[in-house]
Specification:
Layout lengths: L2 H16 L24 H27 L1 H6 L5 H9 L15 H8 L8 H16 L14 H20 L22 H24 L19
Helix pairs in contact: 2-4, 2-6, 2-8, 5-6, 6-7, 7-8
């Protein structure tokens, strides 16, 4: 078979595969537009970008859900809705390296969420900390190339840190007995576990990518048993 025809068939096959994108319930598509930059990316690099994209989607969903459960928090900032409040955080993602969130002390921000007497937006403090911590596990990058190398340990640690943050979110209460932030359910309501499912997806995505990077780099992850109740984070 002549070489040009081989290339043509390959292009047709790739084009056919590109049209078989996943169609989601909300009408969105998961297909990535072709870019010349992809020619200098390995399969693992593309997997990193896809995992990060899904992770950021989960973070945004969680942010909106927390604001809808705790509307008093976005009202503190004079904002009109959960969607507007969420956009305040996620509009920073496209300009991430220059964003103030890339330099955020996420450990302090997590702890600020549960500080008695804190008068600021607790949802923003919690979710900006979570987003900053997760992005730190990706070295604050959104594009990955063959010369880049993520740390499997950082990704693994971020998954454990999410578990700690979720435990605190679900269990921390003010002296009055009220939760600092309502998540899974209100007292007396039918249990709503949608938060747990979304956080579970987030943890699973980070863990799976950590295993992929571990296999690629041949650098073993040091697995730690972490006491979630201590509210102590692993380094990123």
């Amino acid at each position: 078979m002549p070489l040009p025809l081989t290339f043509l068939l390959a292009a047709l096959l790739l084009g056919g595969c590109a049209n078989q994108d996943i169609k989601r319930k909300d009408g969105s598509h998961s297909a990535r537009a072709f870019s010349v930059a992809n020619l200098v990316k390995s399969d693992v690099d593309i997997a990193c970008e896809l995992a990060q994209r899904e992770t950021l989607k989960s973070l945004r969903v969680l942010t909106e859900k927390l604001y809808k459960r705790n509307p008093q928090e976005y009202r503190k900032a004079g904002l009109e809705s959960a969607e507007v409040a969420s956009a305040r955080l996620f509009d920073e993602v496209p300009k991430w390296p220059e964003s103030h969130l890339a330099k955020l002390n996420w450990e302090d921000s997590f702890k600020l969420t549960f500080l008695e007497g804190y008068s600021g937006d607790r949802v923003y403090a919690f979710m900006s900390a979570l987003t900053s911590m997760v992005m730190a596990s990706y070295n604050h990058q959104s594009q990955f190339y063959v010369t880049d190398e993520l740390s499997a340990q950082k990704l693994y640690n971020s998954a454990r840190n999410i578990e700690v943050a979720v435990w605190k979110l679900s269990n921390a209460k003010q002296p009055s007995g009220a939760r600092y932030l309502v998540s899974n359910t209100l007292e007396g309501e039918v249990p709503n576990l949608s938060f747990e499912r979304e956080f579970g997806k987030l943890i699973a995505d980070q863990d799976l990518l950590a295993l992929l990077i571990e296999d690629r780099s041949n650098r073993a992850i040091t697995r730690s048993i972490q006491g979630v109740a201590s509210f102590v984070f692993l380094p990123i």
